[in-house]
Amino acid sequence: MNSLAVEVAGLVMRYGDTTAVDGLSLTVETGTVTAVLGPNGAGKTTTVETCEGYRRPQAGTVRVLGLDPVRDAARLRPRVGVMLQSGGAWSAAYPHEMLRYVSRLYADPLDVDSLIERLGLGGVGRTPYRRLSGGQQQRLALATALVGRPELVFLDEPTAGLDPQARRSTWELVDELRASGVTVVLTTHFMDEAERLADWVHVIDHGRLIASGSPKHLTSEGAENTIRLSAPAGIDTAGLVTALPAGSQVVEQSPGVYLVSGTVDPALLQGVTAWFATQGVLLDAIAVRRRTLEDVFLDLTGRELRS
Q: If both were cysteines, with which of 22, 34, 42, 288 could 28 make a disulfide (CB 3.0 to 4.6 Å apart)?
């Protein structure tokens, strides 16, 4: 069995004079959750749509489960689930009948009633699709992507518009998919979601791959964590620095709020608290702020993710 569920090599996609994808190469390991992230206009949607078979590569190659997603579409459709961020539903259809119809297109679908219950769609069975809330439409789109027991599923913004409880339930479902061997390719603008779910992250900007790695690797590489303190304003920051390991820095970010940077480890934390103890000053608060994927994005692209 191929260990790669998705292989993209040298992909180029243009719209007129605009190059949306510029020689992009990336892979997705079988049985993982892989997040493809990037600011709007980065090329991630075009890349994913090419993998889904909606667009034909203008240059380069794309393989999904070892097959060409355009030429071998008929062979791939029973094996791949696709959740679009919008569209793909009949506006007048009832959710339950639509889901049952889609399930009959597959040889071995999931139990529809159980899926309806799991995704909290039991109370909207006789509500036309167009009258569903945005979150309900998202959950129905997720259900239609999963009902055929796919080996690989593409999830485009799966928790957009969901309340916190439904969002948490969706996260648990993604965890269960991975545990059962399903490969998940995820696009999301929620950095905590990518950090929580993904085994591997690809960051795309201006049509190119600019970073890849596990969330832990990306958030620990190239930048230090910080310690944030709340204490009386105007402390002797120079004196505090002399009590800390070499290379440490202290700045008063605002009156009474201090950031300590350096190699954030037990020795630095001990040095901070010990110095305040010798000064007879009780800290109001102390917290270690760890680097996040949002920080990585700002460092790599200079732009925040926006939905």
A: 34
Gap between the Cα atoms of 196 and 210, Å rounded: 21
Q: Can you list the domains of the chain with their CATH numbers?
A: 4-220 (3.40.50.300), 226-290 (3.30.70)
Q: DSSP alpha helices (H): ranges in the chain?
A: 44-51, 73-76, 95-103, 112-118, 134-146, 164-179, 191-197, 215-220, 237-242, 266-279, 293-301
Maximum C-alpha span of the chain: 74
CB atoms within 10 A of CB 101: 13
* Packed helices 95-103 and 134-146: angle between N→C axes, nearest 10 degrees: 20
Under the phi-then-psi rule, with left for phi > 0, alpha for psi from -120 to 50, and beta for the rest, what region is 41? left
- The pTM (predicted TM-score) of the whole model is 0.83
Q: Residue 11: CB partners within 8 Å, gap ≥ 6?
A: 21, 23, 24, 25, 47, 50, 57, 59, 60, 61, 62
Angle, to 10 degrees, between the axis of helix 134-146 and the axis of helix 164-179?
10
Tell me which H or E stretch contains 11.
strand 4-15
Total Cβ atoms within 10 A of residue 12: 15
Q: Quote the tokens at residue 287.
A: 């917290």
pLDDT tens digit sequence for 99-158:
999 999 999 999 999 999 999 899 998 899 999 998 899 999 999 999 999 999 999 999
Q: Please give the structure tokens belonging to residue 227.
A: 């310690």
Q: Distance of alpha carbon 261 from its chain centroid, rounded?
A: 28
CB burial class (10 A; 0-12, 13-18, 19+) of residue 181?
exposed
Please state, in angstroms and rounded to a whole number, the distance separating the CA atoms of residues 34 and 113: 29
Structure tokens at 130: 């167009």
